[in-house]
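B., you asked whether I could sanity-check this one before it goes into the benchmark set. Here's the sequence:
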Amino acid sequence: MPDRNISMKESTSNPSYHHQKISNKLINTVPPRLMSETVSTIVNIFSFFDLNANQFIEVHELRRILNALNFKKTTDECLDIINTYDLNNDEKIDFHEFIFALARLIKHDVFTLLDIQQRFNKFDDDQDGKLTVATIPMFLRKGLGISVTDREIFDLLAKFDITDETRRISFEKLIRMLQYVVRQSEKTQAPEYMKKLNHRCGPAVRNLRSNDMKLLRKRIGGYLSSSMEEDK
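And here's what the prediction gave me:
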């Protein structure tokens, strides 16, 4: 049996024209604070899987590489692997999703969109797709594991004109709040809770756009779909 480690090492330490073709493009999409030898290695590994150099890992590419490494997988099994880390539901893995997948494997406190939605559901007592304002502190502290003060929560809600305790917050509204926190966390004087939320939720929500939210509605389905429409 060929040595898998040697095969991978050879492919990443001696970049081919295929690797060089997309490496610069991929590296340019990585935030400067992540630039390191480690990221360069990840780029090379991504390129190793991206056989046609279109900056995506697709099902047929994943199956071909895994089979070459003697990990025998069917097309359906490879599709299951991709769907686990496919954040925008396009049935392929881009570079940011690839980094996120590695982060999930290494650090279990980094959440996917599905992780956030599942925690949201746990605190949605009446299952109508919305959380009460009074539930938000518990959701942040216990659901997402973030240490945050009542004052910080009040200030965050106020940014979205949520000052009435009878208001209810949909999942889509929550995602918009998290996106705001992720943007603010880049500032020098950002509160510690924002930095922690960015670490845990940033990869899942940072680049979500309106079209992604439409896909999210379809993926979640049911009561959440209708509640999101009402909250616009």
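One thing to flag: Residues 179 and 205 are 6 Å apart (CA to CA). Otherwise nothing jumped out at me.
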